[in-house]
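REQUEST FORM: STRUCTURE PREDICTION
Request ID: SP-0412
Submitted by: Lab K.M.
Chain count: 1
Length (residues): 508
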Amino acid sequence: MSPNPNPDLDGLMRGLPVKTEGPQASGTLLLIQVCLLWDGRVSYMIKKIHICVQQKVYIFYGPKHKGRMADNSTGDRAAAGYHKYKEDVKLMSDTGLEAYRFSISWSRLIPRGRGPINPKGLEYYNDLIDKLVKRGAQIFCAIPKKGEICDCSMGIEIHVTLYHLDFPQALQDEYNGWLSPRIIEDFTAYADVCFREFGDLVRHWTTVGEPNVLSIAGYDSGVIPPCRCSPPFGTSCAAGDSTVEPYFAAHNSILAHASAVRLYWDKYQAKQKGVVGTNIYSFWPYPLSRSCADIDAVQRVLDFTIGWILDPLVYGDYPEIMKKQAGSRIPSFTKEQSELIRGSADFIGINHYKSLYVSDGSNREKAGLRDYNADMAAHFRVSRNDTPSDKCLSIYQILGFGQFDKEDSLNDTERVEYLSSYMGGTLAALRNGANVKGYFVWSFLDVFELFAGYHSPFGLHHVDFEDPSLPRQPKLSAQWYSKFLRSEIGINIEKMVSPDEHEHAYYQ
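STATUS: Completed
RESULT:
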């Protein structure tokens, strides 16, 4: 059987390094995606994006836009969130959401990546934010107790991700996007616009969503835009170099993140009173056996997946094993860059969907071309008897978000069990001392999934993509989640296996 997801969150959160220096040291927190219960969505996946003033401004519109999904689908229409956001905000209110996380589309706001702001994009995001604040005020302030003064200032708490995969095509054409250090200045300028225009009501900012996924899937396997790769690691790309480009894309994303964070701290934080951090894709690895080689492989996997992004933000440099394995193919930080990135986060967001069994893969042929996966040198299994994969993101694609990669239904009992399990694991982590501030559910609506199109519906609310009006309908999980948010039902975490007990049982 596959590892139980419940205890892994606790182990993951207790095992991450904590920032101990820097201007925001006292405010550092670990945010996992339970004080507030939230939903999160990504711009391209929910919105019909070509309604901007001009078309073909996203990298999703490039030559590789069509044909990447098994069903040849695209996100051109998706859940039409741009047109239906008022209806969706009401649905959030009816569900009882306390907070909502969404990503801003850089290309919608600044179509050329730099320069003039699109007034329609600015109007849309301002109105969405205003609606969330007002709708939330109705939730929390409709019937204040006698003598109470109700503070309606926050409404549905807003969490914004500045970048999640939809990159301006103009900058991609100009200098290959995240592969160039020029991205640092342009991303910081874009972040400045967002902080200035929306920071009066937005208190929680994530710079880059899952930069490790962006780097691997966009520049090694090439399965998502900008679809760059090279044989034998990826075979359907017009250009790219899988041996080095993932490392350079991640490197520049870390520097761009740190630059945007320092800008916010220096220019906006004192007045706006917000926080800014990043978000990392993760899974918890269990050794397939008790051999030293498999145990070492587990640590190597943690370094290559989480440490790749987190170590620079905590220590100012990459994990030693990554520098050893990749050698000259991974760029180095200068002393000044190391100072810039170290401590550059008020919080760390963790995207965690599943745990995997890991075995050593260091006996793979070391001669010839090597990519990120070859450097990590590990094999992955969902369960003990599975055929191993040497690519962690192929497992990511198979699993989706919680093993719901089959045709879904309104009676999604598996999702209810999954959410209950993960929330219980998060509560257990809190009890064990982890500094957790919230939990996001993926996702509020069925959306266009970047790895699966429309055939992996993970939303709490069903969207009928066959109906031109794209009606929403609550699933069983939405009803359960709403009752949980309103404290009508609870989670019994006493029956859950603790991390220590789980590991002790595993090693017997």
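NOTES: The chain has a mean pLDDT of 80.
Reviewed by: T.R.
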